[in-house]
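This is your field. Please look over both lines of this record.
***
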Amino acid sequence: MHTGEQYHAVIQTSPRDRQVRERFQSIALDLLPQGADVLDFGAGTGIDAKVFAAHGHRTFVYEPSDAMKGYLAQHCQDEIARDAVTTVSLPLTCKVHGVTANFAVLNHIPEQAALFEDLAAVVQPGGFVLASMLNPFYLGDARYAWWRANLLNLIRDGSYGIASESRIHRFTPRAVTRAAAPHFRLERLEPRGLGLATRLYMFLLFRRV
């Protein structure tokens, strides 16, 4: 179990993680109109929130982990002081143009339909939810027994959970799309095709109907 500071250091020094994060941030910033508010759902230590705030977007942050929240308060101290970053709790009461959920945050939530129903009350019409989720088709995981054991469940049900401390679930894009309806429609999936076999993370962009 990492402390917030340990997590922050590890993820900031990993070249692969930095590449994933920079791509995610780039997509999110392209989607946000000038001055639009955003909710960083599962904000971790505030790495994305600090970037969004620096680009003029008031950023609401939701983070359930006390360890992560503690370091977020340090990392985003200046932004919090000037109300550019604001901490929120459940139930979510902010209204935003977009919601971002980076680095498999949504993989910790088994009830995807209930989640998207809650997010629909937060996102303005025409807004979006952008999520990076663990890719269930990533062949790099095929060396693990749990991946092979759950392949049938993935094909049959579109999802499966792994019994572990982190309680991680894997979802197909189709399963998440079904859960998001009728409030959101899938607008973009990255990567597609054979790229799904080689990328640990997939990006899903949902548009508020």
